[in-house]
Amino acid sequence: MQSMGGGRRKPAYPPLLLRFVLAVVVLSAAAPRCAAFINPRMLFLVKPDPIVLRDHGGALLTGNLTVNLLFYGRFTPAQRAVVADFVRSLSAPAPAPAPAAPPSVASWWRTTSLYRGGGARVALGRQILDERMSLGRGPLSPGDVAALARAAGHHRGAVTAVLTAADVAVAPFCVSRCGAHGRGRGGAHGRARYAYLWAGDPARQCPGQCAWPFHQPPHGPQAPPLVPPNGDVGADGMVISLAALLAGTVTNPYGDGYYQGDDAGAGLEAATACAGVFGSGAYPGYPGKLLTDPATGASYNAVGLGGRKYLLPALWDPTTSQCKTLV
Ligand SMILES: *[C@@H]1O[C@H](CO)[C@@H](O)[C@H](O)[C@H]1NC(C)=O
Known about the structure:
Layout: E1 24-28, E2 53-55, E3 63-72, H1 77-89, H2 105-109, E4 120-130, H3 142-151, E5 158-164, E6 179-186, E7 192-200, H4 207-210, H5 233-251, E8 258-260, E9 291-292, E10 299-300, E11 302-303, E12 309-310, E13 315-317, E14 322-324
Helix pairs in contact: 1-5
Bound molecules: 2-acetamido-2-deoxy-beta-D-glucopyranose.
């Protein structure tokens, strides 16, 4: 169902400066009547500079967008709340301006509105629990993930995020990626396109790749891990992946939106173009300037509804061709 595009790019940094990145693969849908799209979108240890994402002119997700959450496997209510509150915060009204107020989750999401079409206004849709794991503990294939997303509901104006628990294997989690986004076709004549994504809880599977900087990286400069803002390496790490994938999904939902270069299978997207960057002054191994919660010592860069804190990845800003950081 998927091919791996590994090894296309050689690391540009010496090994100690390797920047490991969130890797994203666009999965193909496994729906019987669809033409399968096989479109791996994988990132390795390279960030060419400067990055320009080209607008390939295809449809983006704009206007009202519902994000459904499918929790596959066992998550605690606290973990689900971290994720659901993040989605609820994306298009929340701006709080009254206050001096020295930290950046909001909504201000982070607003960078996606600088892309053609003005961005999407996100509302949290259904939250579906599949605690008994209808397709087993895994390893789930890309086709399984597509089937789960499809079953959760697919229509224009909705994206289903399939979130897998820490003990659910998704092949090949860790090897090269922490999540993926994809697209499928449904409807009476297979003409309706829909987009979906998958992000895994990285607490037990490659936290160094998928929960950095809350966990030590597998390679490169070793700094002490940061304290996650919600006290949960898995949930806070999964939010980083979910955030990156949502930004990639709305700005390149069908493989012909914004991505680097001309090879739809290999291009960097809105967040993956800025992998490893969370605050200003980031360099390989250092996430950049962040805010610190004085009570817990946790690192964050955005605040959502109810004052909940998050660490969110930098996004590529099409008006400046730079990675935009919040702090
Ligand atoms: C989008 O959602 C808002 C808030 O729910 C609603 O007021 C508006 O009419 C919707 N717009 C469209 C085009 O459906």
